[in-house]
Automatic annotation (TrEMBL), chains A, B:
NCBIfam families, alphabetized: recR
Source organism per UniProt: Ruegeria arenilitoris
Residue ranges covered by zinc fingers (C4-type): 57-72
Gene name tied to this protein: recR
Residue stretches making up the Toprim domain: 80-174
One MF annotation (Gene Ontology) recorded for this entry: zinc ion binding
Record-linked HAMAP family: RecR
Protein name, as recorded: Recombination protein RecR
Keywords noted in UniProt: DNA damage, DNA recombination, DNA repair, Metal-binding, Zinc, Zinc-finger
């Protein structure tokens, strides 16, 4: 490819990133080599840092650098509200909107008969435990408006019925839409207009 | 963004890569964290390796890990033919086609009155030196079919007229097209059908 094995190895690894194909990986590597001091070395260092420190929060599944993440650790967030999301990218999207002040629970996916994903493959048992242990009064099901997302929301609602107030994001989430694609205002509107299940 | 400064720092750096915006950088970083052993650590190591070893060939401008690149060093490539390209990505595209057996000269851009890029800002003086020093008999101007690319080709042709055979890639390069976007067959056809200037 580049007639150089170290550079080819880097291109091959870059091409494995979501959103980068072989051609954009080659462009990115040439850009990195040109910006060695400004970008290549800092990026390598930052990756090493994250590789050494990143871990999943044992409580909620968020990604951070401590066993219990900053959000779970913050006393300011103990509102009794728990926002259930499919993955960490959705948690970040909620945080960017800046409107939710409670804590999160990251399922790590959705139920899927097709892919053989059952409740125990997700953080659903742990969610039940948290509702009791953390005196949760409201569970906001902020799952994607997809078939699997809504199936999962109904399953969780069935499990927790009668124990807590159950709500879901409502107005503003387009059919088939995914949280991480929405702008902050839409997320804010959807949270404010949340409805009882 | 992620409520964690190390992870945010990595996202910010990733977002500076060509082809990745903030959203795809976040997705890429989550993917890297999930694939720590398989992707994140190897990628960091490969970047460190390239940062420590990559350099521009002093002769042709290609990127490699030695002062003089493998192509310039190879006696098999001493055909008397020199292929002039705008940048290293174009050299790689020519090499993928596998049809050219001579050596390269990477200009490092094109002449541009608008951007104030003159002949001395590119490797044009060095091209003149190489034509003499390496007993070059043919210079193939494989520049992009853009206005700046063709202006640069004409400038170089003027400079070298009477000293060597001057050719350019011909059939197959679409108007406004860039080498790095073409398939190997098109590049091969264009090289085979090259015409006198
Ligand atoms: Zn947590
Ligand atoms: Zn070279």
């Amino acid at each position: 490819m580049s007639s150089n094995s170290e550079i080819d190895a880097l291109i091959d690894l870059m091409a494995k990133l979501p959103g980068l194909g072989p051609r954009s990986a080659r462009r990115a590597v040439l850009h990195l080599i040109r910006k060695r001091a400004l970008l290549l070395t800092p990026l390598s260092d930052a990756m090493q840092q994250v590789a050494a420190t990143a871990r999943e929060c044992l409580n909620c599944g968020n990604v951070g650098t401590t066993d219990i993440c900053d959000i779970c650790n913050s006393e300011d967030r103990a509102t009794g509200e728990l926002c259930v999301v499919e993955d960490v990218a959705d948690l970040w999207a909620m945080e960017r909107a800046g409107v939710f002040k409670g804590r999160y629970h990251v399922l790590g996916g959705t139920l899927s008969a097709l892919d053989g994903v059952g409740p125990d493959d997700l953080r659903i048992p742990r969610l039940r435990d948290r509702v009791t242990a953390e005196n949760i009064t409201e569970v906001i099901l902020a799952l994607n408006a997809t078939v699997d997302g809504q199936t999962t929301a109904h399953y969780i609602a069935d499990q927790l019925e009668g124990q807590v107030r159950l709500t879901s994001l409502a107005q503003g989430v387009p059919i088939g839409g995914e949280l991480d694609y929405l702008d902050d205002g839409t997320i804010t509107a959807a949270l404010r207009a949340r409805k009882e299940l």
